Amino acid sequence: MVYLDHAATTPMLPEAVQAMTAQLTVTGNASSLHAAGRRARRAVEEARESLAASLGARPSEVVFTAGGTEADNLAVKGLYWSRRDADPARTRVLASPVEHHAVLDAVEWLAGHEGARVEWLPVDTYGRVHPDALREAIARDPGDVALATVMWANNEIGTVQPVHELARVAAEFGIPLHADAVQAFGQLEVDFAASQLAAMTVSGHKIGGPYGSGALLLGREYAPVPVLHGGGQERHVRSGTLDTPAIVAFAAAGRHAAAHREEFARDIGALRDQLVKAVHAAAPDAVLGGDPDPAGRLPANAHFSFPGCEGDSLLLLLDAQGIACSTGSACTAGVAQPSHVLLATGMDRDLARGTLRFSLGHTSTEQDVAALAAAIGPVVERARSAGLS
Amino acid sequence: MTEAPRRLRVLAAMSGGVDSAVAAARAAEAGHDVTGVHLALSENPTSFRTGARGCCTIEDSHDARRAADVIGIPFYVWDLAERFREDVVDDFIAEYEAGRTPNPCLRCNEKIKFAALLDKALALGFDAVCTGHYATVVRNDDGSRELHRASDMAKDQSYVLGVLDDRQLAHAMFPLGDTRTTKPEIREEAARRGLFVAKKPDSHDICFIADGDTQGFLAKRLGTAEGDIVDESGNRLGTHDGAYGFTIGQRKGLRIGHPAADGKPRYVLDISPVDNTVTVGPAESLDVTALTAIRPRWCGNPPQAGPAAYTAQLRAHGGETGVTAELIDGSALHVTFTDPVRGVAPGQAIVLYDGTRVVGSATIATTERRARAAV
């Protein structure tokens, strides 16, 4: 199989598998006081320190969750509630319109159920939020902003946001900024302390760790209202028995990601450039999504729109040849809809229906790109003949 | 008649029900390269089924996906909701509004499954579309196709496929019609194959009217328009809320206060949308001796000129009746019944058979009654 969907999930790294399986056979709840509990607690705290180091954070800033979606929900809902509790005037939420659904839908839920007034920040044709746009939005009334949220890098089109500049603007006004860094971790330099972010989401299975592992990096001055209530683990912010095997494996993957980031980004970026070239050679009218400047996009991401094609048709035809990729768009009732990200960038609705996202990872090879290069031309031709239904 | 088995690229339409799941499984077992596809036909799918009906919920889509996973074939959901609304739902409403009684399942087979879906499938390189219909396709030596009733007459669905032409049949695959299999046996087979839809109830009625309330569905879209209910002599017997709410042959729900002079039950004889009048009368007046049907479609060559004897089916679950049919000017079909039949309504399809073979179909335009002039 030619696997070009690493942004969906990437194979677990051997060191993560090893760390996880070793922990699976050991008993102990990290909250227990006896020896077994202390042993588990030690493993968890070492993992916390390790992950913090991988992300330029303090150990106490790491709140383990069961994945990126949970961390996003905790940041968006929890910070909204706590900020509004402190001052009822704070009901305005500033968000980019290109967020992952874990943020987007949480924000919309707040609007629908908690009286939040959502303001979607303007983006350019690459889906990028300009720091001045954030400044303008906050400055209109800094006193009524609960939080702002802008992802570090986009999961569909790979556009990297000017997170440092955005965080500086938010910090100037004392507004907490959350960034979903799920796609950025492992590909870009992600340093929580240097970023000045209030909160940041990371996920295990996107970097070679296990499914169901994630963390919210959370500045120590923030105490979001919990989404999950219970035993009071994780600074009383996220209750639930700590998943020791997943946490140690996540930390192992995080160490690998941090240690090999530069060479990975360089090598995978070169392979991605090959892929883009190959697709354009076979389908000259394919439109590259996101920022064409390699410095402005995730090194492992390539995103295309194929005029006159249905993304689903392209996917089906590639899948039939053993090539796995994604249309990059969200599914509603299993039915592909034009991506909200592409529509936010101003892309034409019909063009937005014919998209494919290719994402590379640590197991990607030149043979994978060659297989795609050989297949994509006829596939696009055939999908185009099937047209848009 | 036999041909060497060829590995075909087959697109299996999977509703989420047991029949289409077993059909896809059989096609895969026969060695074909099968891909499952669920058609999203509702523009506002609900999460869960209400009762046993429907094939358009997210739950049905999930059931179809699970079945595809068990069979081990790729699975996709295709959004044909817009086409379905235009070609089937809007047509259904317009037909009722015009005082006719449409069959949306035929329409869906003609316009969606074996048109929109088939065309896309062929364009994507598939050779055939497979469904869970109970009917049989026979390939003749000259390459032409014949559509026949299913081996199990009780489950036969050739009526709703009677609109398919030769080209559509050439790319149709009905794995359930080729063998003598009863419904309980299909369920057993599904269970044996590990398909958990084995026990899922059959779908009934009209898939886009989830609660089965056709009148409520129409009333919401066509509004209410009070009109008269009259007898055959034109005497006013009562009122109704909209002529579209009636079907010829209908007895219940007429809400006529007083009984007929002869004390016999009264039935809907005619629906006239022009003056919004519903005519009722005794059962005998429902007897139709002949009809004219339009939009004929032939499964294969059109019949020879001149009248010929066939059997006919007038409803999805109706029996057979003897007829003589003649093609008029190539575009209309005149059908005379050997014995009068009741409950024949304009808008319905008449499917002609020669033995078990489907000859063709047409849409009933006008009927002729024994005692009365043509309506």
TrEMBL record, chain A:
The keyword Manganese does not apply. It catalyses: (sulfur carrier)-H + L-cysteine = (sulfur carrier)-SH + L-alanine. Keywords: Iron, Iron-sulfur, Metal-binding, Pyridoxal phosphate, Transferase. The keyword Iron applies. It comes from the Bacteria. InterPro entries: Aminotrans_V_dom, Cysteine_dSase, PyrdxlP-dep_Trfase, PyrdxlP-dep_Trfase_major, PyrdxlP-dep_Trfase_small. Its cofactor is pyridoxal 5'-phosphate. Gene3D superfamilies: 1.10.260.50, Aspartate Aminotransferase, domain 1, Type I PLP-dependent aspartate aminotransferase-like (Major domain). Residues 2-372 form the Aminotransferase class V domain. It holds the Pfam family Aminotran_5. GO terms for molecular function: cysteine desulfurase activity; iron-sulfur cluster binding; metal ion binding. Belongs to the class-V pyridoxal-phosphate-dependent aminotransferase family. NifS/IscS subfamily. This is Cysteine desulfurase.
UniProtKB/TrEMBL annotation, chain B:
The record marks 133, 348 as: Interaction with tRNA. One of its GO terms (biological process) is tRNA wobble position uridine thiolation. GO terms for cellular component: cytoplasm. It comes from the Bacteria. Residues 289-364 form the tRNA-specific 2-thiouridylase MnmA-like C-terminal domain. The active site is at residues 108, 207. Residues 155-157 are annotated as: Interaction with tRNA. Its main location: cytoplasm. CDD domains: MnmA_TRMU-like. InterPro entries: MnmA-like, MnmA-like_C, MnmA-like_central, MnmA-like_central_sf, Rossmann-like_a/b/a_fold. It catalyses: S-sulfanyl-L-cysteinyl-[protein] + uridine(34) in tRNA + AH2 + ATP = 2-thiouridine(34) in tRNA + L-cysteinyl-[protein] + A + AMP + diphosphate + H(+). It holds the Pfam family tRNA_Me_trans_C. HAMAP family: tRNA_thiouridyl_MnmA. Catalyzes the 2-thiolation of uridine at the wobble position (U34) of tRNA, leading to the formation of s(2)U34. Belongs to the MnmA/TRMU family. This is tRNA-specific 2-thiouridylase MnmA. It comes from Streptomyces kasugaensis.
